[in-house]
Design brief:
Organism: Alkalibaculum sporogenes
Helix content: over 70%
InterPro entries: Homeodomain-like_sf, HTH-type_Tx_Regulator, HTH_TetR
GO molecular function: DNA binding
Radius of gyration: 19 Å
Number of strands: 0
Protein name: TetR family transcriptional regulator
Structural class: mainly alpha
CATH architecture of the largest domain: Orthogonal Bundle
Order of helices and strands: HHHHHHHHHH
Strand content: under 5%
Keywords: DNA-binding
CATH topology of the largest domain: Tetracycline Repressor, domain 2
Oligomer: single chain
Shape: elongated
Distance between the termini: 60 Å
Largest sheet: none
Length: about 190
C-alpha cells in the first residue's frame, strides 16, 4: 500500500485550484490534475476517492482557513472597536494574500452541483460565542450572529475584490468601512 506524502497532496491542491479557476469544474479532470501536479492519476486516488470528494475537501479546508486565522487573533477581552477591526482587517488581508484560494472557494460556494452533499459553511462556534459574549456585555447590538457576520464579511469582500492592495485610496476605503461597521454594530 502506498503512503501519503504532504508535498504531493499540496501539489494536488494547487493543481485543483489552478485548473478550476482556468477551466471550471467540468474542464478539470483527474488526469489534468495529476499532470499539473507532476504525479500519476492513480496517486490522486490515494488522497481522494473521487473528484467531487476532492473538491469538497479542498473547499472546506480553505474556506475555514480564514476563520482559523481570525480565531487566533480575537479574544473576549478586546474592546468592541478592536474586535471588529481585527476581524475586518484579517479578512481583508487574507483575501489579498490568498487570491487564488479565495476565488476557488467563492467559485465552489456558488456552484450548486458541487455543494450537493457538502456541509454548509458555518462560522466556528468559538467565534459565534465571542460575538454572543460581546452582545451579553452590552458592547455589540443584539443582532443575530448571521447578520453580524454578513455585515462584517460582505463589505470587506467587495473592497478586497476591487482593490489593488497598494493604493492609498484602497486603504482609505477600507478604514472608512471599518468605521461604518463599528458604528453599525457597537452600542
Amino acid at each position: 500500500m502506498r503512503t501519503k506524502d504532504d508535498e504531493k497532496q499540496k501539489s494536488i491542491k494547487n493543481a485543483v485550484i489552478k485548473l478550476i479557476l482556468e477551466r471550471g469544474f467540468h474542464g478539470t479532470s483527474i488526469s489534468k490534475i495529476a499532470k499539473l501536479a507532476g504525479i500519476s492519476p492513480a496517486t490522486v486516488y490515494i488522497y481522494y476517492e473521487n473528484k467531487e470528494e476532492m473538491m469538497r475537501d479542498i473547499y472546506e479546508e480553505y474556506a475555514y482557513e480564514v476563520f482559523e486565522i481570525i480565531q487566533k487573533r480575537v479574544t473576549s477581552n478586546l474592546t468592541g472597536e478592536q474586535l471588529i477591526e481585527i476581524i475586518l482587517y484579517e479578512y481583508y488581508y487574507y483575501i489579498m494574500r490568498n487570491r487564488e484560494t479565495f476565488h476557488f472557494t467563492e467559485q465552489f460556494s456558488n456552484c450548486p452541483s458541487l455543494q450537493k452533499g457538502c456541509n454548509t459553511l458555518k462560522v466556528p462556534t468559538s467565534l459565534n460565542n465571542i460575538l454572543s459574549s460581546y452582545k451579553e456585555r452590552g458592547i455589540l447590538i443584539d443582532y443575530k450572529n448571521e447578520n453580524i457576520w454578513a455585515l462584517l464579511i460582505y463589505p470587506i469582500k467587495a473592497i478586497a475584490l476591487n482593490s489593488t492592495g497598494y493604493e492609498i485610496s484602497d486603504k482609505a476605503i477600507l478604514r472608512e468601512m471599518v468605521t461604518i461597521i463599528q458604528n453599525s454594530l457597537l452600542l
